[in-house]
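Need DMT family transporter's 3D structure for a figure. Predict it.
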Amino acid sequence: MAGENYLGRGIGGLSGNTGGIVWGLLAAGLFSAVAAMAKIAVHEYHVLQILFFRQALIFVFSLPSIARSFPSSLKTSRPGIHAIRLSGAFVALSCGIWAVAVLPLTTATTITFAQVFFVVLFALIFLKEPVGPHRIIAVIVGFLGVLIAMRPGAGGFTSLAGLIPLASALGAAVAVVSVRKLSQTESTATLLLYQALFVGVLAGVPLFWLWVTPDFYGWVLLISMGVLATLGQWVGVQALRSGEASVVGNMEYTKLVYAAVFGFILFSEIPDLHTIAGACVILASSAYIFHRERAQSRRHRS
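Structure prediction for DMT family transporter:
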């Protein structure tokens, strides 16, 4: 089939999964760079102003895709689920920027991996997706890794700082599960339009009171963040088109490496032992899930 041939070509002559891994590594690097830039920008600009610029640039670059199906892309039969999804996306994005402002990059990145475990839990409860005992155990172990990472960088479980990336992970999981549900009836253009428009509006309205006019350097920084975030989304889509989702999804965890490098070079941050230990537990849990998914996939194909 033509689609299979396209997926198999990957990039630069690489095989499907190999190409997907390369694209996935690039996407993780781009989003980690955006997080590092947000950590710089938040010293001068409010979290919502940074989020507004990011969403505005994504919206501008998405206009050609949106225009092709407008105004039908505005129609939806599930406004309630859209509202839940947009609320989750807003919490995820705003708290994600806030988290890197108050925590070391590696610590914030490690804790936000709780999204993986929240998604499994919500998919089981709300989507009735089958989740076997092995995956449940792996999820529990992985979440323990998140709790280990929270203690040092956040000053303990009662610290607000440690709860910020956890809130981001929770919001992201709500958005992901909502998109899974919406994708059954809504077009990609509708999903894209609603998030780009309404998350931008939620971030933009408070700017009547919070706006700080950027200088030349500020404009370059904020616009660059939006461009890189848009590019990261596009590259992420290419990764999923090239390789299997179970393979590409595992590349998310390389953000830990990128965060450690950016944190050290830009902010002289050195991850503490608890963050490293928590990251190792999370990676081990994810590797186990990845191994089982691959083994089951092979059995189903044979």
